[in-house]
Amino acid sequence: MQKRVVVGLSGGVDSSVAAYLLKEQGYEVIAMFMKNWHDDSVTISNECPWLDDSNDAMIVAQQLGIPFQTIDLSVEYKQRIVDYMFAEYERGRTPNPDVLCNREIKFDIFLKAALKLGADFVATGHYARKGETTVNGKTVYRLLSGKDPNKDQSYFLCQLSQEQLAKSLFPVGELLKPEVRAIARKAGIATAEKKDSQGLCFIGKVHLPDFLQQQLKPRKGKVIEVPASSALFSENEHAVDLAEVTRPYALTPQAGEVVGEHNGAHYYTIGQRRGLNLGGFEKPLFVIGTDTRENILYTGMGEDHPGLYRRGLFLGHEDHWVREDMNLGVGESRRYMARIRYRQPLEACTLHRREEGIYIVFDRPQRGVTPGQFAAWYEGEELVGSGVIS
User: Among 48, 101, 158, 349, which one carries the catalytic annotation?
Assistant: First the structure.
């Protein structure tokens, strides 16, 4: 019996080729465009406007001869993604909306809508792969890196569950990006030469301060420059206690001197250089800490400033295991490779499960460990689990 697949057709070349490949493989393919955003006032120029994407998706569906429909998920997107983003920034944390969008929208609400249409699977244009193994006689699904090392998007799927993976297909995961474009050209697909979109999932490229100012109002505050020689940076250097190794630096107003002002600590993230608008320093200033309660921005001079680096991080109990069978018990530790942001090279680390939660200690200090972002850990090419950095 022919299997039915609902493809999240975004109007880009990757999802277009995903739909084409599935049809070639004999699936009954239905295209569905997710409309998740109405406010174009915060987008920069006309990059990735949803209306153009919707039209492109419709044209591709017509070319492929597959049914097309639009689903409006803007209410759910605002509740689950945008409101969460505002709340996190207000707390001085930096969320990852793309990871959340996959967990909460594409592979939850969209998946449920597809199942109501009688779909056996949903498919997207992600550069990732799905594998299977058997554990205790039960099929367990594996989330694997995409074959293209420059486009691997497994990190964005790091919060998916076994139930979500079971119903998911990633047709372009075995391909390199140039191969995807070549397939699109050969098939005469309208999006073959379309540029990749950048920016927030479904919103497009936005000027983040303008976006945040919809709810988080500007508030003048002090910028403090903390010298690299400050004693507060020596306390973690030789620590062996997990809590000590992973604790963020205890920045205080006394740690440095006031060098300027900013428009709101909640607009900035650790490691950020642009947007400070402060000159006259020997080296560029980077954000090394934010205090949204007192509205203070802490900066350090130069890319080698110790305030930019940490040996480890703490996830608390905000860990999620794609491979539930590989979860650590209290007191257990295991070696993995991990990344703390998309496209960061994988780094060797050790995960430790303690009563209070998960600690990750890296072999080398990591730059720009940012609360609110996701850390994801891998065994070989398989993404095993992830968690929100505290």
Answer: 101
Examine the residue annotation and report whether 158 is marked as an active-site residue of this protein. Answer: no
Give the domains, in start order, of the chain with CATH numbers: 4-209 (3.40.50.620), 221-308 (no CATH), 309-388 (2.40.30.10)
Catalytic residue among 48, 158, 201, 349: 201
Pairing of strands 68-72, 28-35: parallel
Helices and strands: H and E segment counts in the chain:
10, 18
Which tens digit of pLDDT belongs to each residue from 262-287?
Answer: 999 999 999 999 889 898 999 999 99
Q: How confident is the model at residue 310 (pLDDT cuts 50, 70, 90)?
A: very high
Q: Is 48 a catalytic residue?
A: no
Mean pLDDT, the chain, whole residue set:
91
pLDDT of residue 44: 45
CA dihedral 277, 196, 99, 129 (to 10 degrees): -140
How far apart (Å, rounded) are the C-alpha atoms in residues 314 and 375?
10
